[in-house]
Amino acid sequence: MAIPQLNFASIDLSSAKIYSTSSNTNGFLRVRATYNAGSNEITVTDDVAGYFGSGSIEVGYRLRSPSEFSTPVVITQWNSGTKVITVDGGGGAAQSGTNQLTFIALPAGKIFIESASFAKVGGNSTNPPQNFNDVTGSLDANYDSDELPWGVAGILASTASANTGLTGMYGQYQLTSFERRNSSLEANIFLSASDTIPAFKERVGYSLGSEQAQSALLLTERSGSFMTIASDGDISGNQALGLSTYQTAVASTIAAFTSASGGNAFPYTGSAQITGSLGVTGSVDTLLNASENFLIKNATVPTQSLFKVDNEGVAVFRAREGEDGIPSAIVGGLYFTTSSAFIGID
């Protein structure tokens, strides 16, 4: 059996720019657009040089135009053919305007890193990852679902002050896609928070700090909520960054274990398989829906039903054929054949 190992490296931010709901919000995507007063439909007329343009627009992004939508509104539809954006902006645009400068920013929980640089101490073909070619986002077309996905850890900042990192506060994000690989050592990367993985949920009021708040990020494979921890000598960052994933992943995992009596982990909903003995002290209620039943069967192959209760309360014992496999008589025992029923009494 292979020994599990989480490969890791670093992302150097010395030449990078981080865009988020609070970092460089006006610099990510800019277009010029035409507005009609009271309308929620906006027509893109041109891209703005030096910024990402209409080819990068996605549903869920936030749009702002100083005179028409001064408060950011969410893009609900985008037609790349007609260049028409639909937003959820209440009463529509405050006024009409032609070729208006329009800012489009990322939503909460989504991060874009432009010109991220790959860094790996001792990285080579026998000590992967060697470069960004060894890393894929979980939404990339070439992602192999049999391989572990990748994640990024970095210092958090308040959404009100993205350039000021908060000492001792770290966040973990999933690496979802590469927008572009400029080379094997430089790339544009999308990260995202998670709605389901505890350690990857973004805290309200916080986001990944900007490139001015930190010099490097930890880049690592992940297994569920877990990413690796590393020595500062193995990454392009300090020891606090190397241990940051321990702070978030282990804390959320331990909380799930210890909260069982408080009702967060139990009552349990879903399917579970237990191998071995299970002891229960207290009452046990088995609730059956229309297509469910309570079933006991033996573990030998082929498996056979020994006892079943369906959702209508009908109990069904295994019916043995003739004298085949007649068990020894036991006081209090009950068994059936295809033609008889036997009860063990003194």
List keywords for this structure.
346 residues, mainly beta, elongated, Elongation Factor Tu (Ef-tu), domain 3
List the topology elements.
Elements: E1 8-12, E2 17-19, E3 29-35, E4 41-47, E5 62-65, E6 69-79, E7 84-87, E8 97-105, E9 110-119, E10 150-158, E11 165-183, E12 186-192, E13 206-208, E14 216-223, E15 226-227, H1 239-258, E16 293-297, E17 305-310, E18 315-317, E19 319-320, E20 334-337, E21 341-343
Parallel strand pairs: 19-20
Antiparallel strand pairs: 1-9, 1-14, 2-9, 3-4, 3-8, 4-7, 5-6, 5-8, 6-7, 9-12, 10-11, 10-13, 10-14, 11-12, 14-15, 16-17, 17-18, 20-21
Summarize the structure.
With 346 residues, the chain is mostly beta strands. The strands form 4 sheets. The protein has a 6-stranded antiparallel barrel with strand order 1-9-12-11-10-14. It has one helix spanning 239-258; strands spanning 8-12, 17-19, 29-35, 41-47, 62-65, 69-79, 84-87, 97-105, 110-119, 150-158, 165-183, 186-192, 206-208, 216-223, 226-227, 293-297, 305-310, 315-317, 319-320, 334-337, 341-343.
For the secondary structure, the number of strands is 21
Going by helix content, strand content and strand pairing, the class is mainly beta
Q: Which outline best applies? A: elongated
Average pLDDT reading: 88
The domain tally reads 3
Note the main sheet: 6 strands, antiparallel, barrel
Could you characterize what this model shows?
- With 346 residues, the protein is mainly beta.
- It folds into 3 domains: 8-14 and 110-258, no CATH class; 26-105, Elongation Factor Tu (Ef-tu), domain 3 (Beta Barrel); 293-343, no CATH class.
- It has 1 helix and 21 strands.
- It starts with 7 loop residues before the first strand and ends with a strand.
- The model has no long low-confidence stretch (mean pLDDT 88).
